[in-house]
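So, can you check these tokens?
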Amino acid sequence: MTNGNGAPAEGTAPPQLNVLAQYIKDLSFENPNSPGSLAPQEKQPQINIQINVSATGVGEHDYEVALSIEGKAENDGTLLFGFELVYAGVFRIQNVAQENLHPLVMIECPRLLFPFAREIISTSTRNGGFPPLMLDPVDFVGLYRQNMARQAEQIKPS
């Protein structure tokens, strides 16, 4: 509840978002064509990245949010490297209006996880013998809107 000025009404607790844990849930890095794939390349590889977010309730106010990032680098149809990372966190969210809960879980929680996932991917590609792959920042608001639009399309009657 607000007092009309956007501030919490007197007597109501402010919204809270706490990170209880964060962890690698799954990590795979493949370098199937080494050592040949480690030789200098004549042209830049094509890099394809897929990002997804999922969430599961794990308690009355607790949610596990998983940021799934898959990627591969190819040059002329040859796989240089591929990776899959599921980086997750458990978040406690309290005093948030029900209509704001889903966007908070699906936008703000992955935004908090992303820098850590980015570092894991960068380190993994470097340790795989390649230059570190520095993922561009992700527009989690845009990703959320795309997913909501896709779900709305699937629900529409034919």
